[in-house]
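Hi F.,

I've been meaning to write this up properly since the lab meeting, where we talked about keeping a consistent format for the predictions we share between groups. The idea is simple: the sequence comes first, exactly as it goes in, then the structure tokens exactly as they come out, then a line or two of notes. No screenshots and no reformatting. I'm using this chain as the first example so we have something concrete to point to.
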Amino acid sequence: MGDSKKRLKEFPSETQRAMGGALMLAQLGGLADHAKPFHGVGSGVFEIAERQDKNAYRLVYAVQLGAKLYVLHAFQKKSKTGISTPQPDVDLIKQRYQAAQELAQHDPGNRI
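Output, unedited:
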């Protein structure tokens, strides 16, 4: 959703491969070892966290919206302190989750 694909392509190639593999597993109904529930947005929202060269990368996706998987946000975490996701990113994830729900409801190929 939004610029998530563009941002993912800006990640280091090793990080892209790891996140791509986790997304493929999610599409097949599985859950990668390094994926965890992303709380505070909705049911079926997960976060993949990767570290590379002292940088932290995050990808948040939603399942359980019919037959599709929606990548809600991909970003490099810039905060030097704490492990929580910055509020502007959380707000964007919530906004995109709502948009994904609307898309899923109006998609004739989806079975919600």
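Notes:
The chain has one domain: 4-106.
The chain has a mean pLDDT of 89.

If this format works for you, I'll send the rest the same way.

G.
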